[in-house]
Fold:
Amino acid sequence: MKRSIDSSSFPFRPLFYVATLILLTLLPGGCSGGSSDDDATMNCTTSNSPVLQLVSTTGTACDESAGSIRVSASGNGTVRFSIDGINFQDDGIFESLEPGPYTVVVKNDLNCMAEMQVTVKSGISFSQTILPIIQTDCAISGCHVSGAQAPDLTVRSNIFSAATRIKNQVETRNMPRGRTLTSTEIQHIICWFNDGAPDN
Structure:
């Protein structure tokens, strides 16, 4: 999805952010070995699977595609890298990335693979960008306030505990009811959620 956001609404341009390393998994059963005559197969194990390591990430503003991920890998011959699980390349450098989560995959000569989840962060500010959207369009009379629709989004902690629900509702345009968020506002909320919904 191409993201186009008026850069004037974004108050800053973050530089470098540490990626969120969520998962490192060996993918068994995709490893082929033995001679071509008997088409023998063997299971991928820790000893014959590649080891994937995160080198660095570069963040990018919510309205830009300037992020990058750099990884390295070793183990059992030549390794190749992919960021979509389909197209593989010889190096572990992925550039011109939008903010958000990515699955980086490495595959060796035995067709054994390892993967990790890496997030390219936007660094968008909750206090400066997200909170004003919620205060203007959600935490208003008859909507997400005390005595009306739960959760009460006038309570700051409730916003973070309901982050997944907020993201899903605005992304599908189910909320706010009777009001319309701009594409820019929706994308800002998605960027904030993908950053880990920080209180920043």
Residues 126-194 form one domain. The first strand starts at residue 24 and ends at 27.
